[in-house]
């Protein structure tokens, strides 16, 4: 509904900012990263906006860049991640570092962010890796091929184990599919491995 707001900064706190636009003051929830980029009260700023609509409230979220807003929206797609947790991730790490952690299959870099446990970190990587690669195809070039393959293998194996297959069977099925399709995405490898295991 809203792409961005440009106006005068009224106040900035670690987790919220107030921006006056054409005589109307709007309150935004923001990440620590955005808070650090905003000028002091009286300065002009632009906040890229996400509007959250709930039965009992409308809430504006503001971001210093389109990339941060885009990552926030992607994080909301992960099961178990809500706006508060998504902002916590963006407050703890720059957008580029979150992308790198996901593409490099490095959950330990996300684990430790307030509210992010090991399972949540693994889910973020599993559910967002392919989406980020599709949004930024060039990002794949910055991740060594061996790391990409290892990340795909680990993510697909973890998904199969979550579905109830033994780790040994999952690893064997994923390895077989990766040999025939070494550049396959997690989704592709997972789908073909599932098909192969069900046909045994």
Instruction: Name the CATH homologous superfamily of the largest domain.
Output: 5' to 3' exonuclease, C-terminal subdomain
CATH first level of the largest domain = Mainly Alpha
Average of per-residue pLDDT values: 85
By CATH, the architecture of the largest domain is named: Orthogonal Bundle
Number of helices: 8
Q: Radius of gyration, rounded?
A: 20 Å
pLDDT below 50 for ≥5 consecutive residues: which ranges?
Answer: 137-147
N/C terminus separation: 50 Å
Which structural class do the helices and strands define? alpha+beta
Number of strands: 5
CATH topology of the largest domain: DNA polymerase, domain 1
Work out the count of structural domains: 3
H-E string:
EEEHEEHHHHHHH
Please give the share of residues in helix: 40-55%
Gross morphology is elongated
Write the SSE topology:
Layout: E1 4-12, E2 16-21, E3 24-29, H1 32-37, E4 44-53, E5 58-63, H2 66-76, H3 83-92, H4 95-103, H5 118-135, H6 145-162, H7 167-180, H8 186-198
Parallel strand pairs: 3-5
Antiparallel strand pairs: 1-2, 1-4, 2-3, 4-5
Question: Would you kindly provide a brief summary of this structure?
Answer:
With 200 residues, the protein is of the alpha+beta class.
Characteristic terms for this protein:
200 residues; alpha+beta; DNA polymerase, domain 1; Helicase, Ruva Protein, domain 3; 3 domains; 5-stranded mixed barrel; 8 helices; elongated
How would you explain this protein's 3D organization?
With 200 residues, this protein is α+β, with helices and mostly antiparallel strands. It folds into three domains: 4-63, Nucleic acid-binding proteins (OB fold (Dihydrolipoamide Acetyltransferase, E2P), Beta Barrel); 66-139, DNA polymerase, domain 1 (Orthogonal Bundle); 144-198, Helicase, Ruva Protein, domain 3, CATH 1.10.8. It is 50% helix and 18% strand. It has eight helices and five strands, in the order E-E-E-H-E-E-H-H-H-H-H-H-H. The chain has helices spanning 32-37, 66-76, 83-92, 95-103, 118-135, 145-162, 167-180, 186-198, and strands at residues 4-12, 16-21, 24-29, 44-53, 58-63. Strands 1-2-3-5-4 form a five-stranded mixed β-barrel. Helix 6 packs across helix 8.
């Amino acid at each position: 509904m809203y792409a961005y707001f440009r106006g005068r900064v009224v106040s900035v706190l670690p987790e919220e900012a107030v921006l006056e636009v054409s005589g109307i003051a709007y309150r935004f929830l923001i990440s620590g990263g955005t808070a650090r980029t905003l000028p002091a009260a009286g300065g002009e700023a632009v906040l890229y906006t996400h509007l959250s609509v709930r039965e009992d409230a409308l809430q504006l979220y503001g971001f210093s860049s389109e990339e941060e807003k885009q990552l926030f929206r992607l994080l909301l797609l992960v099961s178990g991640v809500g706006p508060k947790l998504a902002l916590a991730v963006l407050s703890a790490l720059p957008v580029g570092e979150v992308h790198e952690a996901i593409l490099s299959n490095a959950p330990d870099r996300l684990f430790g962010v307030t509210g992010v446990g090991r399972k949540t970190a693994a889910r973020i990587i599993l559910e967002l890796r392919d989406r980020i690669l599709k949004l930024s195809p060039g990002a794949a070039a910055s991740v060594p091929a061996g790391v990409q393959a290892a990340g795909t293998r680990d993510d697909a194996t973890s998904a199969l184990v979550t579905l109830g297959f033994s780790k040994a069977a999952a690893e064997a099925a994923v390895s077989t599919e990766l040999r025939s399709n070494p550049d396959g995405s997690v989704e592709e490898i997972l789908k073909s491995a599932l098909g192969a295991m069900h046909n045994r």
